[in-house]
Amino acid sequence: MDILFIQTDTMNSTPAATERKLFDLADLESSALAVVGVVARYEAGQVVPEHRHRRGHLIYAAEGILRIEAATGRWLVPPTAAVWLRPETPHRLMTPVTVQAQGIYIREDVAVDLPFEDCVLHVSPLLRELINAIAHLEDQHTQSRRTTLLGDLLVEELRSKPRLPFHLPWPVDPEMQQVCQALAHDPSDSTTADMWAGRLAMSTKTFYRRFQRSTGVTFGKWRQQMRLMSSLAMLLQGTPITRVALSSGYESHSAYATSFRKQFGCSPSAFVAASETEL
Q1: Residue 16 per-residue DSSP state
Q2: pLDDT in tens, 38-70
Q3: What does the buried/exposed string (b/e) look like for 245-271 if buried means 16 or more CB atoms within 10 Å of the residue's CB?
Q4: In this predicted structure, what is the pLDDT of residue 277?
């Protein structure tokens, strides 16, 4: 079943009175419109269990940051980006901070012209406004010239957007999954490849080979990407950059900033400024 969990915002109620509502998206996805959307608010720490959609799914965090998990990898969605998931891709959502999210669902016959792989795409000011307009349509079923044009333009924008480095490949190998889960749980963990190989009763050479075969990247590269991606939520919460660097396993502010710039093409402070501009 196509589902969406929405955390109801109840400012004047106690936490115990906060309601979690379950919405069936089957009706929305059966709309005559090629492109439809929804708006959802999630509280910090909320998890949306694994589910899938018949349509292609574009997930955008208008406020906050979302983590999307699928068999093929992990993605982070800051306000400058959106995750594209192909039709029928099983995934779950996690919210490190409070998030205002917008979901766009693109009919299967239209989605075939979009990226063949799940990925993160840049959200330009135009794409942001298109997502917002479609997600807030009062009628997600009646076709009109405006709804058709909005959908067509959004799809055209998606075709031209570059992919962004907010993707963390996830291994299928159970032992390598064990390693990745432990490191993702504690980004500052400094356990070396030699140590992991010893724990798993294999040679270091075998560990390196199996890790790269299962993830597509080296152990060192994967850990660096994981640390940098894990640090984004702290940055957006206003944590001082030096504290973010140390919590992410870096020895200094400068070492963290250098790695951050190589991965994302800007400094940590510029990333925060750009994200705040999008809000």
Answers
A1: G
A2: 998 888 889 999 999 999 999 999 888 888 998
A3: bebbbbeebeebbebbeebbeeebeeb
A4: 62
* Helix (H) or strand (E) segment spanning residue 76: strand 73-77
On whether the CB atoms of residues 91 and 68 are closer than 8 A, the answer is yes
Measured CA to CA, the distance from residue 194 to residue 199 in angstroms comes to 9
Q: In terms of Cα–Cα distance, which of 195, 209, 118 is closest to 164?
A: 118
The CATH number, out of the four listed (3.55.50.30, 3.30.70.920, 3.40.1180.10, 2.60.120.810), of the domain defined by the range 3-160: 2.60.120.810
Q: Are 238 and 231 in contact (CB under 8 A)?
A: no
Token representation of residue 229: 């991606």
Task: Convert 29-64 to b/e letters by CB count within 10 Å (16 or more is b).
Answer: bebebbbbbbebbbbeebebeeeebbbbbbbbbbbb
DSSP designation for 17? G
pLDDT in tens, 235-259: 988 899 999 999 999 999 999 999 9
Q: 3-state class of 44 per DSSP?
A: coil
pTM of the full predicted structure? Answer: 0.78
Which segments of 214-276 are extended strands (E)? none
Q: Domain 171-278 falls in which CATH fold? A: Arc Repressor Mutant, subunit A (1.10.10)
| Contact between 51 and 26 (Cβ < 8 Å) | no
Read off the pLDDT of residues 125-136 as tens digits, 9 standing for 90 and up: 999 999 999 999
CB contact at 8 A, 4 and 135: no
